[in-house]
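seq as requested:
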Amino acid sequence: MHAVRTATAPSMLRLAAASLAGTAIEFYDFFVYGTAAALVLGPLFFPAFSPAAGTLAAFGTFGVGFVARPLGSVLFGHLGDRHGRRPVLIASLLLTGASTVAVGCVPAYGTAGVAAPVLLVVLRFLQGLGLGGEWGGAVLLTAEHAPPARRGLWASFPQVGPSLGFLLANGVMLTLSAALSDAQFAQWGWRVPFWAAGLPVVAGLWLRASLAESPRFREIDVPVRVPLAEVVRRHGRLLLLTAGALAVGYAVFYTVTTWSLAYGTERLGVSRTVMLACVMAAVVVKGACTPLAALLGDRYGRRPLCLAGCAATAAWMFPMVALLGTGEPALMFLGFLGALLAFVTMFAVIGAYLPELYEPRVRCTGASVGYHLGGVLGGALTPLVATALAGRSGRVPWGVGAYLTGLALLGLVCFALLPETRPGPAGEGAADRQVTASRG
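struct tokens:
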């Protein structure tokens, strides 16, 4: 049995910074599309549809990215379990960045006809494919280098990346939305954030080029030939439980950050600038609280934090939609903040929790596929379901609250059926102890 090596604090800072930067860049790419889908893509690429149908069609292309993410997690998970975590970080960043820049170059329906939405769907699929590999590579490289007692904290840094990516994406959108007229924004302004993705991608590739491979991967004597088959055969129940458990987190996050933008501007008559500002302020607080929640996970366990987050989500969804329905900025911010704090209570510890559930030789595939299957259930469907449900209600979208509460209860059951993994006195997680026993 090999000794498990962990990185020093300065090394961990470099690793965490590189992982955080990469996830921020990739989620910037993903969120730029989501915001554009909520604000302008419907009329530009589906002009023959009614406003509501156009928004649904635009969110449909948004959902394609989520469908691609599990496929990306299978592809890049295979690469990560057979050839290392580090190559995943380079390849996924290249794929997502290139496809994002290309989205900014797609002509509108008025210029290219049917080819325009087709190109949009293809590029969105490639975006999702790349992001499907990013999360697993970034989280595993950090978690597998980290000292066991602080694994939750260090593994939470990639989880801050989505917040930073969202703030970057929507900061650019907010600036353009405020500086340009509606006509200018629709004509060319929405493209600028996609083109701007090229520069941080180059910086991210430079930052990641010097990272060392994970010590856990280097200790694998014989890589699994087909990691996905091994995960399905030996860990199928675990895969389904993690997907069901994580769906609510995705649903809440994309309800707040994507669907609410469309609902606020189209149904409530709130300006784009005000809606973006309310959401961004809540995301800032959520991002700042992520490491704090992860520290609690290191002290009290991963599963208790996840259960608490699910319970808080179930309790807050009806108040959140009621506050949204007011159209008042301060009250909408309060509703969004409560939802995202419940969300981060769960997702701050997921970067440590999911890898600890799987043995190292299939960890990249198992953790990534479970994480992104939850994204299909919660992220791809939620904007579509929420838009349809809101269309049948008055100013307050009670149906959306009921839908999110139901997902929270499903997550509560799934988390209750999952084991705790916080490292014990020996400093190893449950999966690591199992592997150690099988070797010894």
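Residues 433-440 have pLDDT under 50 and may be disordered.
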